[in-house]
């Protein structure tokens, strides 16, 4: 059962032009669930795919988690284009508001700017590889 889901996940991932990775931060690292998912992927899973990391943590103390914890793991999965990413402080996220979960305009602006950059890179790369 796990192997079948793993194969399905790998197939779906391969079909995507880009990857957005979102994880909560716990003790300056990504979640165990994310690590488990990434562990079942082949070493070249993110080759030729831009990756946009978003992480949510309880305080600014873990601001560098994307750079020092997540990016090395993404690089090990052959990610070559990793956006700067955005670290969101939990108090700015309203998990009950699906329409507008980010409550701070400055933070929303950063997320939107990175998303636009991600979409632009994804379009360029998909044209090149077609």
Give a nutshell description of this structure.
The chain has helices at 2-15, 32-39, 65-76, 105-129, and strands at residues 19-24, 51-57, 86-89.
User: How many separate helices?
Assistant: 4
- State the end-to-end distance: 33 Å
Overall morphology: globular
Corresponding CATH superfamily: Flavodoxin domain
Helix content: 40-55%
Quickly give the CATH architecture: 3-Layer(aba) Sandwich
Strand order of the largest sheet: 1-2-3
CATH class: Alpha Beta
Helix/strand-derived class? alpha/beta
How many E-type strands?
3
Q: Estimate the strand proportion.
A: 5-15%
Which regions are unreliable across 5 or more consecutive residues at pLDDT < 50?
A: none
Oligomer state equals single chain
Instruction: Give the H and E element order.
Output: HEHEHEH
| CATH topological fold name | Rossmann fold
The radius of gyration over CA amounts to 15 Å
Q: What is the count of structural domains?
A: 1
Average residue pLDDT: 90
User: How is the main sheet built?
Assistant: 3 strands, parallel
List keywords for this structure.
Rossmann fold, 130 residues, 3 strands, 4 helices, three-stranded parallel β-sheet
Task: Describe the protein in words.
This protein is α/β, with parallel strands linked by helices and 130 residues long. It has helices at residues 2-15, 32-39, 65-76, 105-129, and strands at 19-24, 51-57, 86-89. It has one domain (16-129): 3-Layer(aba) Sandwich (Rossmann fold). The protein contains 4 helices and 3 strands. Strand 2, helix 3 and strand 3 form a beta-alpha-beta unit. The protein starts with a helix and ends with a helix.
